[in-house]
Amino acid sequence: MRITTIIVAAAFVASAGSAQAEDGPCNEWREAGVIGDLRCEPADGGAVIGGAARATEYAQVFPRAFATFAKYFAPSEQKVALVVQPEVSPELTAALAADGYRPLPWIDNQTKAAMLRDSIVAQVEAQTASLPEAQRAAVVQQALAKAEGAAPAHADPEMEDGAIAHEIGHLLFNRYFDGPETGSADRSTRYGSSAPDWLDEAAAVALENDAQTRSRYVAAREAYDADGTVLAFPLDTYLSMEHPLLQSAQALKTLKRGSTGAVMLSGDEADAFLEASGGNPAVFYRQTRMFIDYLMETSGDPRILYAIAEAYRDGSDLSGWLARSGGENGLPETLEALETEFEAWAKAKLVDAAA
Ligand SMILES: [Zn+2]
Asked: What pTM value is reported for the model?
């Protein structure tokens, strides 16, 4: 069993930090009083704010993510502030925006694990109120041990780095597709750019690291081994669907929050919730990973997503782009033919890997 946690970023977690030698924006934000005594570390293309154990490693994700975006799309001028806090204060948000930074709130694995532990203890204690104290303590210990044993991926630092790169990918793609932030009123409710969700997600998944990519293929192979699934969504559905988490996020608002403001579900509960509320995003991600690899491998062009994104930005779509440019890029000229070819490509990958 896998533990999936759904965290609504509303909890405030106090984080001790100390000022270190730092330059540029960190000094400015500290003098302006918007980061208190949180640690602040400049990074290529941005900064890491907050005293997380892995803050220095987080800063090293930046140059890799920006270089990958430049390789697949184009160099980006977007600056990103990874704020290792569940919530970014309005004052900090305003100061970041004034300096051209987009905030990326982040809950580090240690904090996530602590929140999960607290939530498990609270749930078990509530359910065992009638038992003698010694028995309750034993049940709590059991539940914690079970949760810990089931959460290896959750604690994997490489997966965490890949997830940060993914989120940076969203911010860089948003900037490319829609231009600099214009401060529209619906900013907080917007998930991605005005591009279709598959393209937003493709830009983010393209920036993930090897550990993430391996996990996407492991998931795809498990589905194939289980019931022969190659593509979970038909291509036309995939190209027009909303990100599954968007629907889940709406449903999440109806769930009760714990004292920390976070909703924490066990792996089984989380899977059931995601399925019921609009689908499991992991399925969307693994198909996206294969679609990116199919397009790049078949065309031989690492910037193929960029070419397609340019078409969308000019008001066209994948169908129009295929008709015009599919042939010269070694790809089919219709969506129908693309689906057939993509499915055959994906199946060959999954059969191959299983052998
Ligand atoms: Zn994403």
From this structure: 0.80
